[in-house]
């Protein structure tokens, strides 16, 4: 008796999108179904390590892909782990991963077809891609360890529901039968199917078979006697000699591993023999995965022990800031029954992790000599790499060299300058590398503190990413150079030009006192400065005090921030300051004083305690000016 069940709402949405928006690259269903079959076989072999029953009747993994032009079907058969009834509900009726919403959002935003196809694999909704070419899918499956009469059949037209019924099935494993749509009949053609299968299965470790094509003229030869032909090499790619592997093979294997539709940017393949023996094949993607910033995204490498697949997403092989790397580790020094817990504190893992990290950082250093190519990498992964500054002290020096910043040197706003570039350009008596943290490149340029550096032609790095404040506090030195924020630089002591002459000091004495009284405990002090060109004033904190920008970031994140009592520095040559010095009315004096204070907080990326005050003051002032003109 067949039972009809409805799909989980998310599955419906995914199906809707997949069937109504994918018109090109439809052949990816082949990749997805073969990869599911191969996963199932690896799972069965793995479980068989601890439970012999699972392997009863199992000799060797095999996948068969059989088109039937008359019936209009393509069948994918495997002798993998199989599914029981609840597996069917869970795996083919719901989407387990939390990424569904991200997937749906991603699909809506996808620029083109290839973006969409990339998403299907990444979010683990690969099975449903069958409905791109099929209007009905039948899954017949028997779970390893279950008798022949405890098998199940799942049937759906991919619209809103599926049917499940008990059947009997002679062999353990799964058959997925696609009833091909009228407009997708091309996939039934032998050559096209074969070509696609070969392309997507060459790096699969399980043998994939297709029916042998029997030609009239070689009916007599031996070859034609065999009903099936193996189309892939079915050896673990990473165990092969490096120079026997073509770039295309590396590329296809990456796509299989990562579900990335695009090829890799680069890879590292090392076969290490020594105290510890292991092979690593590590890939650098071209583009950041859609869920790189999602904390529960799957990350990490695939682990094999002596070519037996052990587990996916092993995080322990890489530091967190290299979570975008995809790949495989195959070790001979771990037990086959190694558990996730055991991986937490294992000497072998530690050794492999260190070597993987070194290799990756070295590769990036090499990459970085090609500025253009590295710019693309940096754009995608720079912000993740910055986490390494705080996370990986051992390699901090290497990571420092990989950082790229936007700078007043090139005025493009593009993050393309390294700390080494900066140091090579700076005059030998300059002690610090100067930077400013701002919400954006333009905002950085408009900081009043920038005026002095501009005037003097001193280069300033402009840090505009959210993580920069955090990173920069962990990066106080590059070689023997300090990194100093221009908002905290004590330049007045160093440059005689900035000394305010005694005459001005004397003239302004009263106004400084009057201002200090007016501001009261809003400020630590009010002083004069010559470093400003266009701005009337700016605020500075104590040497190690948090910048205003950081305070705002912390506050946004709900962190407590200590009170901020800056020193207000006034430009004695500015007309506003001069007007202030001459202002008789207390009311007008207060108005200008408040404007000066508030705007200098604002231009530093700080947050005003009473934003309304600044707006009101400006309006009052402008209104007064306008009515003066009208008189
Ligand atoms: P993913 O492979 O990323 O998990 P899919 O949509 O491709 O996502 O498959 C969903 C799930 O269905 C798989 O995780 C697996 O548990 C199950 N499944 C699919 N095909 C097979 C198969 N041939 N044999 C056993 N289980 C399968
Ligand atoms: Mg899959």
Summarize this structure as a short list of keywords or feature phrases:
alpha+beta; Heat Shock Protein 90; Ribosomal Protein S5, domain 2; binds magnesium ion; 20 helices; Rossmann fold; binds adenosine-5'-diphosphate; 5-stranded mixed beta sheet; 631 residues
Walk me through the structure.
This protein has 631 residues and is of the alpha+beta class. It folds into 4 domains: 3-230, Heat Shock Protein 90; 237-371, Ribosomal Protein S5, domain 2, CATH 3.30.230.80; 404-485, Rossmann fold, CATH 3.40.50.11260; 497-630, Four Helix Bundle (Hemerythrin (Met), subunit A). The protein contains 20 helices and 22 strands. It has a 9-stranded mixed beta sheet, with helices on one face. The protein binds adenosine-5'-diphosphate and magnesium ion. Adenosine-5'-diphosphate binds at residues 32, 36-37, 40, 78, 80-83, 91-92, 124-127, 174.
Give the secondary structure arrangement, pairings included.
Layout: E1 3-6, H1 9-21, H2 28-48, E2 62-68, E3 73-78, H3 85-93, H4 100-109, H5 113-122, E4 134-142, E5 151-156, E6 161-167, E7 173-180, H6 190-201, E8 207-211, E9 228-230, H7 247-258, E10 264-272, E11 278-285, E12 301-305, E13 308-314, E14 326-331, H8 340-344, H9 347-367, H10 371-391, H11 396-402, E15 406-407, H12 419-425, E16 432-437, H13 441-445, H14 450-456, E17 460-463, H15 468-473, E18 477-478, E19 481-485, H16 502-519, E20 525-528, E21 537-540, H17 548-556, E22 567-570, H18 575-582, H19 586-602, H20 611-630
Parallel strand pairs: 2-8, 12-14, 16-17, 16-19, 20-22
Antiparallel strand pairs: 1-6, 2-3, 3-7, 4-5, 4-7, 5-6, 8-9, 10-11, 11-14, 12-13, 15-17, 18-19, 21-22
Helix pairs in contact: 1-4, 2-6, 9-11, 10-11, 19-20
């Amino acid at each position: 008796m067949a039972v009809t069940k409805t799909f989980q709402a998310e599955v419906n949405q995914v199906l809707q999108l997949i069937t109504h928006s994918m018109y090109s690259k439809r052949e990816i269903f082949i990749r997805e179904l073969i990869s599911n079959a191969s996963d199932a076989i690896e799972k069965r072999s793995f479980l068989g390590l601890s439970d012999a029953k699972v392997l009863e009747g199992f000799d060797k993994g095999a996948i068969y892909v059989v088109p039937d032009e008359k019936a209009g079907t393509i069948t994918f058969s495997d002798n993998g782990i199989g599914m029981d009834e609840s597996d069917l509900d869970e795996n083919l009726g719901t989407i387990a991963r939390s990424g569904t919403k991200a997937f749906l959002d991603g699909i809506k935003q996808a620029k083109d077809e290839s973006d969409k196809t990339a998403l299907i694999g990444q979010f683990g909704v690969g099975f449903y891609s069958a409905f791109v070419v099929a209007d009905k899918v039948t899954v017949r499956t028997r779970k390893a360890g279950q008798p022949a009469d405890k098998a199940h059949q799942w049937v759906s037209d991919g619209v809103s529901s599926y049917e499940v019924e008990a059947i009997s099935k002679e062999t353990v494993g799964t058959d997925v039968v696609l009833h091909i749509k009228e407009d997708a009949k091309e996939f039934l053609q032998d050559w096209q199917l074969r070509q696609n299968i070969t392309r997507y299965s060459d790096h699969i470790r399980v043998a994939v078979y297709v029916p042998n094509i029997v030609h009239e003229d070689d009916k007599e030869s031996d070859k034609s006697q065999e009903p099936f032909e193996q189309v892939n090499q079915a050896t673990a790619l990473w165990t092969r000699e490096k120079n026997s592997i073509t770039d295309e093979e590396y590329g296809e294997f990456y796509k299989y591993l990562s579900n990335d539709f695009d090829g890799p940017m680069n890879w590292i393949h090392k076969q290490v023999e020594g105290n510890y023996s292991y092979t690593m094949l590590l890939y650098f993607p071209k583009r950041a995965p859609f869920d790189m910033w999602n904390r529960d995204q799957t990350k990490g490498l695939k682990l094999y022990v002596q070519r037996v697949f052990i587990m996916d997403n092993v995080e322990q092989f890489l530091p967190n800031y290299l979570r975008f790397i995809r790949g495989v580790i195959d070790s001979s020094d771990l037990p086959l029954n190694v558990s996730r817990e055991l991986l937490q504190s294992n000497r072998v893992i530690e050794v492999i992790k260190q070597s993987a990290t070194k290799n990756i950082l070295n590769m990036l250093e090499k990459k970085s000599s090609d500025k253009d190519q590295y710019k693309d990498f940096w754009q995608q992964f720079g912000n993740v790499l910055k986490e390494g500054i705080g996370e990986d002290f051992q390699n901090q020096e290497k990571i420092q060299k990989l950082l790229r910043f936007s700078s007043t040197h090139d005025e493009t706003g593009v993050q393309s300058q390294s700390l080494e570039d900066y140091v090579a350009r700076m005059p030998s008596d300059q002690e610090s590398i100067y930077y400013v943290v701002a919400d954006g490149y333009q905002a950085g340029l408009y900081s009043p503190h920038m005026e002095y550096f501009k005037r003097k032609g001193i280069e300033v790095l402009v840090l505009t990413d959210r993580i920069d404040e955090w990173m920069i506090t962990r990066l106080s030195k590059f070689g023997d150079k300090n990194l100093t924020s221009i908002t905290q630089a004590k330049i007045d002591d160093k440059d005689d030009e900035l000394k305010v002459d005694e005459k001005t000091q004397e003239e302004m004495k009263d106004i400084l006192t009057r201002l200090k009284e007016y501001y009261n405990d809003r400020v630590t002090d009010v002083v004069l400065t010559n470093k400003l060109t266009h701005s009337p004033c700016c605020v500075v904190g104590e040497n190690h005090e948090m910048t205003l920008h950081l305070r705002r970031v912390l506050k946004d994140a709900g962190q407590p921030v200590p009170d901020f009592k800056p020193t207000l520095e006034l430009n004695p040559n500015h007309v506003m300051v001069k007007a202030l010095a001459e202002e008789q009315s207390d009311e007008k004096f207060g108005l200008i004083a408040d404007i000066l204070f508030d705007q200098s907080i604002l231009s530093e990326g700080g947050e005003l305690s009473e934003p309304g005050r600044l707006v009101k003051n400006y309006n009052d002032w402008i209104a007064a000016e306008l009515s003066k003109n009208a008189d």
